[in-house]
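Weekly puzzle thread! Below is a chain. First person to post its structure in token form gets bragging rights.
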Amino acid sequence: INTDKVFKIFLAGTCSDKGNWQSQIENMMIDKSFDEGSIISFNPRREDWPTDKDLQIEQIQWEYKYRKLADYIIFNITPDTEAPISLFELGQYLSEPGKISVFVTPEYKHYNNIKVASELYGFEIYETNNILEIWKVLMNHFYITFPQIWHLADYANCYELSPKCSIETEY
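Winning reply:
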């Protein structure tokens, strides 16, 4: 894949919550059917977190590599977890506010920490964990990245999983 013409997103945030929000986003993703570009997701979610130290390190290194490679990082932090690693990872991108969007509700225990950081560092915070709302923000960032190939009329309802939608995920 020529990554110069691919919109690369990293699905950061909580992975231990009750639902698998990452797969829901991936199920709505547009494939490389565009003439000049596509979307690819980097999903850190694993069915089972490795207990082997070397495998843990490999997973962590993979996440660092693909967060850096990503054009855009979604941090979806759900209220049913503490998410200390997600907060740590978010802190690494405070100096790149255009690269991240954070989805978190006031019910999250550390919501105020994120809200204050968003005000100080200028990144966007969305007070929702709703998948369709996350999808809309994702599509807006895609449009900004590839305005020449976005056909709103053709892809606006992609979240309904029309035949034009599919998934491409790299692990």
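Puzzle host: Confirmed. Bonus trivia for everyone else. The two ends are 14 Å apart (CA to CA).
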